[in-house]
Amino acid sequence: MFLSSNLRHVSSFRTLPLSLFTSPLRSISPSLHWPSSSIQTKLFFFPTGLISTPLRSLPTMDGAPSATSDATSAGQMVLEPILEEGVFRFDCSADHRADAYPSLSFADQTVRETPIKPVSFKVPEFVPRFECGYGQQKVEIKFPSGTSFYGTGEASGPLERTGKRIFTWNTDAWGFGPGTTSLYQSHPWVLALLPDGKAFGILADTTRRCEVDLREECTIRIISAAYYPVVTFGPFGSPNEVLTSLSHAIGTVFMPPKWCLGYQQCRWSYLSAGRVLEVARTFREKGIPCDVIWMDIDYMDGFRCFTFDKETFPDPKSMADELHSIGFKAIWMLDPGIKKEDGYFVYESGSKNDVWVLMSDGTPFVGDVWPGPCVFPDYTQERTRSWWSQLVKDFVTNGVDGIWNDMNEPAVFKTVTKTMPDSNIHRGDSNLGGQQKHTFYHNAYGMLMARSTHEGMKMGCPTKRPFVLTRAGFIGSQRYAATWTGDNLSNWEHLHMSLSMVLQLGLSGQPLSGPDIGGFAGNATPKLFGRWMGVSAMFPFPRGHSEKGTTDHEPWSFGEECEEVCHLALLRRSRLIPHLYTLFYFAHTKGSPVAVPTFFADPEDQKLRTVENSFLLGPLLVCSSTLSDKGVYELSHAIPNGIWLPFDFGDSHPDLPILYLQGGAILPVGLPYNHVGEANPQDDLILFVALNNDGRAQGVLFEDDGDGYGYTKGEYLLTHYVAEKNSSVVTVKVSKTEGSWKRPTRRLHIHLLLGGYAMVSADCMDGEEVQIVIPSISEMSKLIAASEQEHMKRLETVKAIPDIEKQPGQQGIELSKTPVDLKSGDWSLKLVPWIGGRVISMTHLPSDTQWLHSRVESDGYEEYCGTEYRSAGCTEEYKVVRRDLEQSGEQESICMEGDIGGGLIIQRSISILKNNPNILQFDSSIIARNVGAGSGGFSRLVCLRVHPTFTLLNPTEVVVSFKSIDGSNHEISPESGEQSFEGNLRPNGEWMLVDKCAGLCLINRFELSQVSKCLVHWGSGTVNLELWSEERPVSKETPLRILHSYEVIKAIS
């Protein structure tokens, strides 16, 4: 079996038999493959006395077909050609194919079930292998050396995914990091780019939790509950062809109204109608383009959906009318959590119509969210979707132009899992899968809510295109809604990640996405915000958003230099909307992508495959800088082969991206506007022309009303422009048109790019043929030299954004500072010395597991100086007093000190040692640095309290396990609540956090004589494993100290 052979590769890891744990295993990944490490091979023997429970088949909690308890099967999957040439459905057997649940990803479910007769049947080049057993199905495909992986949907971290693993389990992932493995959306999809530039796609068509493991080079492994089909696409000649074919299966993006492509301003929250109008008017007064203002949850009456606060938003329709009068649209939030309150009309009507998600006992599930106790609509039922759609239809009469679905993973407060129980019941329609446990529908919940909202908006305004934004989604959600990349952080790392995240979503079928510009959590600095606005103004979905407690994050909030950069960026955006709208027309009608990685220009070029600071919008190459210390012109950009000519709108700036037009392309752009509604079909149109080596170029422009459905009836104008060089003359003309619209009477300005920002121009009426004479070689050289000189002069004279970390009077947490990296051996850490010296990320590299990930100002790894929660030590600024790094990179350590008052400091040394690179060691002390003689040289009472907050990847599959000093064995699950252990009940020098699903154990060892108390506290998706010293005064001679370490071992079955 292919999976068992992989186990040979992990021989360098310590192992712990999973069968020794007392609770049954619901999900095991025996196929885990880690690269070899420096850890010596050892067999870990678990303390004796525990009851051994052998592996057995999983209970079919969500009605999944049951794998027999002992029998396993393996081999090549059986196939059927479906959909179109080159697309295949694979199942473990014909019986499994017949038993498979309906597809929620396919736009037309029957397509997956209907074999086709291909024109010329060929055996697929790549055939998946499978192994089934213990209730799971594992799928593997091998590819040739030099293959690169992309996709996996909404995923943080690098663009190229080799070495990474994700889990499709929609999760409220506030402040996620590059190693977070489950975000808000689920796309069990991988795009493989082969060495020769051809491409291949694979979709695991299951809504259940799914592990997509790309940690071994050139190998895709997918693990989920049995049984499910996989669908493969290709290999085709290019990645674009694969994505187009994928869209034929999962559907294309909804046709967006043109106004939603303009800039959009949001905040949690604009607390009154007056404040909303003030922000809107400021945009107009300053001439900064903006099309949309967003209303976060505080507009509601006590967070009750479909209501308005009578004091702060007393007349939402009048406010919306005033916004409309100055060219703004209004978008409002709706969450799934409905307050359980008698007399509240939504709760009353929902209960009457029996629409709520149920617990296993048949009563409505109640969970806490923003309003307090809430019930949740069961969108898997048609009657629930109709009920919700009717509420939305009535809601839009208040002047609502768009709806924002948030918290729809669904997120639930005060739970370890951060969502509703797996055992909850959804009474789904038969064509969705019928009645199932929550595990079956969890990943589809957000998509089904967005679908219901989309349908409700369409009912409310039949002549308008709905606009819905959803946080949670599943592959196929683009049919109903746009998305954003969730609650990011205001720092340079998240700015950089935003490019890859938007591109990954596009490579997974969702082209309409973008980040919270400037970062949601924390305070951006002027340079960070300006740089983020510069690149995000080129993203498909451009929205600025920030959370409560942060400074204002409007474009004018960071000083005049940053405001000018934002102004230029958004004017550039408004000029490019005709091009972007055309791209979305083809995305909607043809399934072509909108924003794609640079390698799409030359898929065979290996050096382009990991480029993360540039991307393509059709033939337009956008090159940016996401580095705090370098502007865009200080970087060497990877430019694809061929002709790429730089150009601008007289707006070049070190904090704005550089724009290149591909040779052979014509780019239509418009005039700059304050909002999309200002544009008129008779306005001047500009064409930028870049000839290819053959002296030719072509481009296309789509135009319609910008809203409604007239385009489906031919009420549009699709113009194909061509340019051709003959001798020294370039002729530009219209080669073809489509649609019933007549060409507007307007001026056409044509700019023929020569290189080095130089151009020659000509004007005519649109539709006329125009000829442009190309200058002689000597004249062209002079033009290019003069243009380059003028361009450099502009860059030298523009006002750069100040390079400051904090503005005067700014309050709140600084996320824009760069964390300190500690990376060596098996470990990679990020630390923030400026706030408590805390560790905010702790990643075990061989298993690619992020054991600890937190927000900057709380949680993570903290240390206190007292028994009370968060006493001094966790927020004070620490200074790095020593940093040791061996030349070989095999050993690294850092020593920090924080002043905790009264002459005391906390000193912490974190080390990854050369002779034990698998061990991460913390050596912490409370030291009396300057204690007065009047106190006898002794300090106040202190206690060194080590407080790490570990992230639970699989909250329901985790236990804390140890053997006490007295010999008793302990296994503590989340249901146990908070427990502390003192005296002989303390762990005998070590305890471990065991993730049964991942098959991993995090062992924490400590010096027993230094620890007087151990405490376990379960949070929402987290657990604290605390070590407490004794409580006493300290002197220079008698410090408090806790020396402890962490090691990851693999549990084996």
TrEMBL record:
Record family assignment: Belongs to the glycosyl hydrolase 31 family.
Boundaries of every DUF5110 domain copy: 685-753
Glycoside hydrolase family 31 N-terminal domain location: 137-213
Keyword Hydrolase: yes
Classification via InterPro entries: DUF5110, Gal_mutarotase_sf_dom, GH, Glyco_hydro_31_AS, Glyco_hydro_31_N_dom, Glyco_hydro_31_TIM, Glyco_hydro_b
SUPFAM superfamilies in alphabetical order: (Trans)glycosidases, Galactose mutarotase-like
GO molecular function, one term: carbohydrate binding
One biological process term in Gene Ontology: carbohydrate metabolic process
Protein name in UniProt: Alpha-glucosidase like protein
PANTHER family per record: ALPHA-GLUCOSIDASE (PTHR22762), HETEROGLYCAN GLUCOSIDASE 1 (PTHR22762:SF120)
Keywords attached to this entry: Glycosidase, Hydrolase
Organism expressing this protein natively: Rhynchospora pubera
Limits of the Glycoside hydrolase family 31 TIM barrel domain: 254-583
A family per Pfam: Gal_mutarotas_2
Lineage: Eukaryota, Viridiplantae, Streptophyta, Embryophyta, Tracheophyta
Keyword ATP-binding annotated: no
